[in-house]
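Exercise 7.
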Amino acid sequence: MSVWQDQGPGKAPLYLQSLSAGPGPEGLLALPQRNLLVVASENDGAARAGVSVYARTAAQPAYPTLMSSDSASGTPIAWGAISGLTADRQRTNTLWAVTDSAYAHARILKIDTSLTPAMITDELVVRANGKPVPGIDAEGVAQREDGSFWIASEGNPDAKGGAVPDLLLRVSAKGEMQERIELPAALQSQAKRFGLEGVAVTGSGADETVWLAVQREWKDDPEGMVKILRYQVGSKAWGVLHYPLDTVAGAGKWAGLSEITAVGPDTFVVIERDNQFGDQSLKTLKAFSVRGITPAAVGAQDVPVLSKRLVHNLVPDLQAPKGFVQDKVESFAVDAAGNAFAMTDNDGVDGTNGETHFIRLGKFAELK
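Solution. The predicted structure, written as tokens, is:
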């Protein structure tokens, strides 16, 4: 929903603010004597029906939390379906995000967090030989030491028109694709629809290592275990670890991973969440260490199981705007100053209310 000011006859209305509302707003009631607006939303299948109450005040608006500046052409940078986040290695107050397959071409977005709301100030279209690359479902991004990026692209073995592989992409700081890496055949043959969902990088040069989170169990995984993949850039060797998911009870409910972020040389934070809306849903940051653990070779029967710990429950942060708790928390990053951020994915507004929450989490003690 958006709020506009009537400027009078012959004048274009003036945009004032966007408002978050439940899926399918159907009824509006203004209460001018109390400076209130009441909106009733139906249940469109994504969340419960509800009633939202907004107050007209001079206070700083709670929403939106993320906006975009104008592009070089003079029009706002279009955005949505943000599915991965990474911090700039050199600059504070700077994050980079990626958009997923809701759009024909993947983009890398630059975010200035020194502003409120946070502001998307630039975009890079992922290209090869100067042309936008189709078919990328960018679900994770990690900046390398030289300013270039690793991007995790989620595959789909059941895609119409033929199977789409999970990919690891190396992309320059200007958005040019420099390397396209497919998973080993023994891994990709076990893939299911819910594939690569996050990427992180540790080390540099000969010691550079890429870590990838798979969202849900693949064919060869025990129930409740998902893969964390290690790719050693120098040797091109792959390794496998298992991450134990929380149990989520109920028909159609599942838990999975939505992000992986390196917070030290051998320590990582993942987003572990379920597919539900609401106050009782699972939306958490969990940490694990790989210190002293050797990943199994691809295809090995015995895969080491990681030990995890709770870092933060995101449900109160999602409740804070006093709307309904979103299901798709998909992005997390810690910037150069130690400030943590999380963000929801609005699915490109296709079949959703388009709501995106950019959450400032502050600094976590003992994160590493």
